[in-house]
Specification:
The structure is a single chain. This protein is an alpha/beta fold. The longest helix has 24 residues. The protein starts with a strand and ends in a 7-residue tail after the last strand.
Length: 239
């Protein structure tokens, strides 16, 4: 069965362009021209991925994304924006969007991003289904991660993580003590086969720190290695 993609944009030319290219790539395509209709179709039609414009009538993309995540709907979201406004991009990612593209964009790049996101989602499902040890757990000081259950706890309190935040945390934890570059994390967690925007990694690292660090300015779990990337390590007792 073909994967289903919902395109939500109020520019008919963009909807038509994306609809054509996605269908050519083998996807079934649903469309909506405003945020309210997009939210309704996202809930009722259960697409495999949503391409969501930031600026929409009735409800903007940020509000649609926020509402979906509040309803615990984890459908991956690729956000489109005509703005070059860093705040909007960061806010969209923090609310649970998986990626963003700035207009104008290449239809081929959109299809490549869609393929990468869906491929990663499929791999995660397969990994969970094939997990041979249901008792697998990762413990790092006060941090407990249960990869096969998609759950993480800090000081015995369950963390409210987006799917991408969880994947990033698991990858960092499984490579504890290793310095990982932004490009490595982008390739491993977002599964990009081309040069992506590493600010996506920085935003997700920042959001993870807000949830597991006592002081985000002096992190004891996720360390920044200047000029290289990030490393998750066991906190030292004197920190």
């Amino acid at each position: 069965m073909n994967k289903k993609v919902l395109v939500v944009d109020d520019e008919q030319s963009i909807v038509t362009l994306l609809q054509y290219n996605l269908k050519q790539a083998g996807y079934d395509v649903l469309t909506a021209m405003d945020g309210g209709e997009g939210l309704e179709k996202a809930v009722n039609e259960q697409p495999d991925l949503i391409i969501l414009d930031l600026m929409l009538p009735t409800m903007d993309g940020i509000e649609v994304c926020k509402e979906l995540r509040q309803r615990k709907i984890a459908t991956p979201i690729l956000m489109l924006t005509a703005r070059d406004d860093e705040f909007d991009k960061v806010l969209g990612l923090e609310l649970g969007a998986d990626d963003y593209l700035t207009k104008p964009f290449s239809p081929r790049e959109v299809v490549a991003r869609v393929k990468a996101i869906l491929r990663r989602m499929t791999q995660n499902i397969e990994i969970q289904q094939e997990a041979s040890d249901p008792s697998e757990r990762i413990v790092i000081a006060d941090l407990l991660i249960l990869p096969e259950h998609y759950e993480a706890y800090y000081n015995d309190v369950r963390l409210d993580l987006t799917p991408k935040e969880f994947e990033l945390l698991v990858y960092l934890a499984k490579h504890k003590g290793r310095v990982l570059t932004r490009d490595q994390l982008l390739s491993a967690v977002w599964n990009y086969d081309f040069a992506g925007d590493t600010r996506i990694v920085d935003v997700h690292i920042s959001h993870l720190r807000e949830k597991i660090e006592q002081d985000t300015k002096k992190p004891i779990y996720i360390k920044t290695i200047r000029g290289l990337g990030y490393k998750l390590e066991e906190p030292k007792l004197n920190e």
